[in-house]
Amino acid sequence: MDWKTFQALLSGVNKYSTAFGRLWLSVVFVFRVMVYVVAAERVWGDDQKDFDCNTKQPGCSNVCYDHFFPISHIRLWALQLIFVTCPSFMVVMHVAYRNDRERKHKAKFGEDSKLYNNTGKKHGGLWWTYLISLFAKTGIEIGFLYILHRVYDSFDLPRLVKCEVMPCPNVVDCYVGHPTEKRVFTYFMVGASALCVVLNICEIIYLISKRIARIAHKIKQHRRHVAVYHDQPLGPSLEKKIRASAPNLSLQL
């Protein structure tokens, strides 16, 4: 996989993100993608060759490896990184849609006419798109953590597994290659994923609380204007109009 192209695609999300979103993107690329590319891929380079069983029975080692490691950690993390960053493209596509609408609007009504004050500002539909992308990223992170824990029964990696799957003749001891190193990387990647979940939840709380505060401020401002309007004394011209229209009002009633 070309991670540089992947990073270039996601770099456009950074300018539309909040502080929490920028921090999330930094954690993804520095603590997950970089660690994955530089170190983790080499540790899990050829995991099946490092899986050694104390038997010469043909096919036993392959079957035992498939039984205990149905999917490699490194491939599962690659899928997780791809899926967890996909919702961010929803925001980029929504902004691109707004830019296209703005361009067509200016072509029709002139350059001075504006459909949006700022196409990248999180208002209206873009706010909802951004919020949905956060919920999607959080759900995907939790889902992959659950899959990893479910497939391997825990986040720990044993040094020795006992296999009695056919065609093994009896209970066979199988040894995992580089177990301590793999355990360290597993805990690191799980911790980075958990940190991303926390950042997503913080950003969701921040966006919703900011939206509630903005709505509350608008309501307070509206009530203040209404109160000022009612407290203003009537001018002489307005008072004459009201008196002149009083007989007509009485007739209508």
UniProtKB/TrEMBL annotation:
Location in or out of the cell: Cell junction, Gap junction; Cell membrane
Cellular compartments per GO CC: connexin complex
Gene3D superfamilies from the UniProt entry: Gap junction channel protein cysteine-rich domain (1.20.1440.80)
SMART domains, A to Z: CNX, Connexin_CCC
A GO BP entry: cell-cell signaling
This protein's UniProt keywords: Cell junction, Cell membrane, Gap junction, Membrane, Transmembrane, Transmembrane helix
Residues of the Connexin cysteine-rich domain: 140-207
GO MF annotations in UniProt: gap junction channel activity
Keyword Lipid biosynthesis: no
Membrane topology (UniProt): Multi-pass membrane protein
Residue ranges constituting the Connexin N-terminal domain according to the UniProt record: 42-75
Transmembrane segments: 20-39, 77-97, 127-148, 185-208
InterPro entries in UniProt: Connexin (IPR000500), Connexin_CCC (IPR019570), Connexin_CS (IPR017990), Connexin_N (IPR013092), Connexin_N_sf (IPR038359)
Description of how the protein assembles with itself and partners: A connexon is composed of a hexamer of connexins.
Entry protein name: Gap junction protein beta 3
Species of the source: Oryzias melastigma
Record lineage: Eukaryota, Metazoa, Chordata, Craniata, Vertebrata
